[in-house]
Design a protein that fits this description.
By secondary structure, the chain is α/β, with parallel strands linked by helices. The chain is built from 14 helices and 22 strands. The strands form six sheets. Strands 14-15-16-13-12-18-19 form a seven-stranded mixed β-sheet, sandwiched between helices. A six-stranded mixed β-sheet has the order 9-8-7-10-11-21, sandwiched between helices. Helix 4 packs parallel to helix 5. It binds nicotinamide-adenine-dinucleotide.
Length: about 500
């Protein structure tokens, strides 16, 4: 595919979606959204406030209550609608990818894969819709006892800026399959593909009011969703501190909550591993999406006997990561999402040096006039790190990796677990028994052996400890969007 396509989105005014209508904010306010790789203005977007959230909740409740509406359709009919949604998204992969690449600064090749993955998530939940069922339970009293899984009602879906459309689809898919109606709020930096997904839902024949999209700041519009008494559940992906605030806000009406939060994932490499494979694949596990990935393998633990060789191989492989214009097909790492994010990461690079970590690669912006206007940074490698350093403890959310030596299996597990997070991780070893013992020992929700793969549409995804609660994707996600009802029938 070439990058010269007719689907380049124009700068313009975009609108939110409430009750099937494209609308401005009630008070007409807007905010600007840009391209972080160029500084170009992309769109003016409605700046929603509490009134707009109230409007969206009313529209979603009306759609939920409609006796002939979404929640009361047969599950198979909802599944067919989701199948259509998947097909419509598939028809718009290039457009969605262009929009995401320009708004997030991420490489177009990856954005195409992400847009296609959205269609696959909808396809999966299309098939899941009529497989949500209860159980019969042999209770002690004479009678019939059975359970029903029912939709919660209006659900709020609050998503971050790193994988905007994917995080939206992980929530929309199961929420809609189970019969809920939804209010989706994208992050302020990156609202464009969420709005487009709302428009495509209507195009696919999903009824008005089932998918509403609200754009606005987290502190006001997001908080209004998290605290709204008319919303039964909030699903959130974002920073751990924001997740804690959402828990507080959700307490008002004892909302159901699911949280996908930060991470500081370990990549553990033993001396007996295929070191070449580890080194060839692992730069992408941390520098992909410019390191703005909750699963980024940002802590590499390497067995001391192979430390120097692994560092050489990994650094050599990192040199090959192509940093450049997000819209160029060859680019593997684009810009960060915003100049503010680049400043935050740059601060961490300075902190790492002050803490005594050894900066062995990167640490600055790439050289060249083409990078001047964008929020670019080179992939950055620190060696000789310790788990008490801030660059090892805190989620940097940028292209920075810390290398830490270990001596044996027990120490590897102890150091990997020396973190408040527990999202994902990898173990590299040819000794499968050892790899599985370590996989069992690491307190994290998503682990891989001899691979850095974390996300599978069909398998559960989510974190231990301060990385969150609940599991997205797979059939497990349906539990997050249903209430469980028990019915007992006296048969005497
Ligand atoms: P963020 O927490 O700043 O924002 C996420 C969303 O929450 C945005 O839509 C924002 O507008 C909204 N928000 C902010 N304050 C709010 C409030 N008080 N009430 C309600 N909503 C509010 O996160 P971010 O910077 O957009 O994303 C990066 C973070 O997301 C990282 O910590 C990363 O690890 C995490 N993340 C986690 C996963 C996962 O599955 N575990 C996946 C992707 C990203």
């Amino acid at each position: 595919m070439t990058t010269e396509t007719s689907t380049q989105p124009a700068v313009g005014n975009v609108k939110m979606i409430i009750g099937g209508e494209q609308v401005d904010a009630a008070d007409g306010q807007t905010f600007e959204v840009g391209n972080p790789a160029t500084g170009e203005l992309l769109a003016h977007v409605p700046l929603a406030g509490k009134t707009d959230v109230d409007r969206a909740v009313a529209a979603a409740q009306k759609a939920f209550d409609d006796p002939k509406g979404w929640a009361n359709w047969s599950a198979s009919k909802r599944g067919r609608a989701l199948q259509k949604y998947s097909a419509v998204v598939k028809d718009h992969v290039e457009e969605l990818a262009q929009l995401e690449a320009r708004n997030v600064g991420k490489p177009i090749s990856g954005a195409r894969g992400e847009a296609f993955a959205v269609s696959l998530v909808f396809e999966y939940y299309a098939g899941a819709a009529n497989k949500i069922f209860g159980e019969t339970i042999p209770v002690s009293k004479p009678g019939l006892d059975f359970t029903l899984r029912e939709p919660i009602g209006v659900v709020g879906l609050i998503v971050p800026w790193n994988f905007p459309m994917n995080m939206a689809s992980w929530k929309l898919g199961p929420a809609l399959a189970a019969g809920n109606t939804a209010i989706l709020k994208p992050a302020s930096y990156t609202p464009l593909t969420a709005i487009r997904l709302g428009e495509l839902a209507l195009e696919a024949g999903i009824p008005a009011g089932v998918v509403n999209v609200i754009t606005g700041p987290g502190g006001t519009a997001g908080a209004a969703i998290a605290g709204h008494p008319g919303i039964g559940k909030v699903a959130f992906t974002g920073e751990t501190t924001t997740g804690q605030e959402i828990m507080r806000l959700a307490a008002g009406n004892v909302k159901k909550i699911s949280l996908e939060l930060g991470g500081k994932s370990p990549n553990i490499v033993f001396a007996d591993a295929d070191l070449e494979k580890f080194a060839a694949e692992s730069p992408y596990a941390v520098f992909d999406n410019a390191g703005q990935d909750c699963c980024a393998r940002s802590r590499i633990f390497v067995q001391d006997t192979v430390h120097d060789r692994v560092v050489d191989l990994f650094t050599e492989a990192t040199r090959k990561v192509v940093v450049g214009d997000p819209l160029a097909d060859a680019t593997e790492m684009g810009s960060l999402v915003h100049q503010r994010q680049r400043e935050r990461v740059t601060d961490y690079i300075a902190i790492g040096q002050e803490e005594g970590a050894e900066l062995i690669y990167g640490g600055t912006a790439p050289e060249g006039a083409e990078f001047d206007a964008g929020a670019y940074l080179m992939p950055t490698i620190f060696d000789a790190c310790r788990t008490d350093m801030r660059i090892v403890r805190e989620e940097i959310f940028g292209p920075v990796v810390a290398i830490i030596p270990f001596s044996d299996e027990a120490e590897a597990v102890r150091l990997a677990n020396d973190t408040p997070y527990g999202l994902s991780g990898s173990i590299w070893s040819r000794d499968i028994g050892k790899a599985l013992r370590v996989a069992k020992g690491v307190r994290a929700g998503v682990l891989s052996v001899n691979s850095n793969s974390s996300v599978h549409t069909e398998a559960p995804f989510g974190g231990y400890k301060m990385s969150g609660m609940g599991r997205e994707l797979g059939m497990h996600a349906l539990e997050l969007y249903t209430e469980l009802k028990n019915v007992f029938v006296d048969l005497t």
